[in-house]
Amino acid sequence: MRHLLSIADLGADELHRVLDLAEEFSEVQSRDVPKVPALRGRTVVLAFFEDSTRTRTSFDLAARRLSADVVNFSAGSSSLAKGESLRDTVETISAMGIDAIVVRHGSSGVPQQITSWTDAAVVNAGDGWHQHPTQALLDAFTIRRHFGDLDGRRIALCGDIQHSRVARSNIDAFTRLGAEVVLVAPRTLLPPDLEGWPVKVEPDLDAVLPDVDVAYFLRIQNERMGRGLLPSNREYRASYGLTVERAKQMRPDALIMHPGPMNRGVEVDPEVADDPRSVVLDQVTHGVPVRMAVLFSVLGPGQFDQEPPVDQETKARQEPQAGEEG
After folding, report:
1. Residue 64 covered by a domain
2. Which of 47, 123, 141, 143 could form a disulfide linkage to 73, CB 3.0–4.6 angstroms apart?
3. Which of 171-180, 185-194, 252-261 has the lowest mean pLDDT?
4. Whether residue 123 sits in one domain with residue 72
């Protein structure tokens, strides 16, 4: 895997291999020193042109835990503020000798464009309404951790589908892994044309909740939508929010998910956000090993052709000791 721009870059087998690799790296998280030398000597630039807490921080931790050098690029304090073009900025950074650039941008297609301006690997950390592939991977990882597999699972994506890159990436990932996806949203928050989308559409949230394995709620993206799409947050919550009463309809083993940041009291009531079935913080936790797996997959030796290098601590545990059978 040279770049990761979209879930479409990964076949089902590759999806499983990234998730399996993330499982290996999740073990690193539990160590006293959660670090391996897998990407020692490599340089990763985090170029975020949109605000981010979870994605940026977890990519930073992921790169450092792989022993890579990390450069955090700030658009506001760069020459972009002086009128430098994005292309010149990328080519300048690339000329300094970097190995990967993790990009978040408000316009769809920018990470793809950047691949033509640099020899570094490019990882899409979210572009416009288009894709957010690592979010989809960590969501799939979280579901797999709880159920063992996504095959045959029924997942409801609820809320602002139209403006959500998370929805598009998750639909691709979940269906490739064998899940059934149901979209639940008001007509104004659905894409105008769903032809070719491997999904079902159900306008009634109450009709869906009792029969899903996962209820995944999406943030209402007021900054991306025009006026008039929603009457009010209060009315939206009444029809499409996961209230305390609605949560009672869900099965005891069902999962409640949200990519964050969450508008508590709009998409999900505060009490429900803290429900034992909520795995929102698990999603955040799993973002680090999943992004470690992605960075290793684009930068590691042979990319997907080799297993991650075994460090001395792991090797010592795996090798038979004196007196043990080999």
Report:
1. yes
2. 47
3. 185-194
4. yes
**Geometric angle at alpha carbon 289, from 283 and 293, rounded to 5°:** 125
One domain for residues 94 and 138? no
Q: How many CB atoms lie within 10 A of CB 28?
A: 21
Q: What are phi and psi of 174, to 5 degrees?
A: -65, -45
| Residues 6+ away with beta carbon under 8 Å from 234 | none
Average pLDDT over the chain reads: 90
Write out the two tokens for 160. Answer: 């602002």
| pTM as predicted | 0.90
Does 317 fall in a domain?
no
User: Both tokens of residue 243?
Assistant: 């209230």
Task: Give the gyration radius of the chain's Cα atoms.
Answer: 21
Percent of the chain at pLDDT > 70 equals 89
Lookup result for tokens 């930073």: 60
Tokens coding 97: 């000798």
Task: Note whether 97 and 189 are same-domain residues.
Answer: no
Count of structural domains, the chain: 2
Domain residues for 241? Answer: 133-282
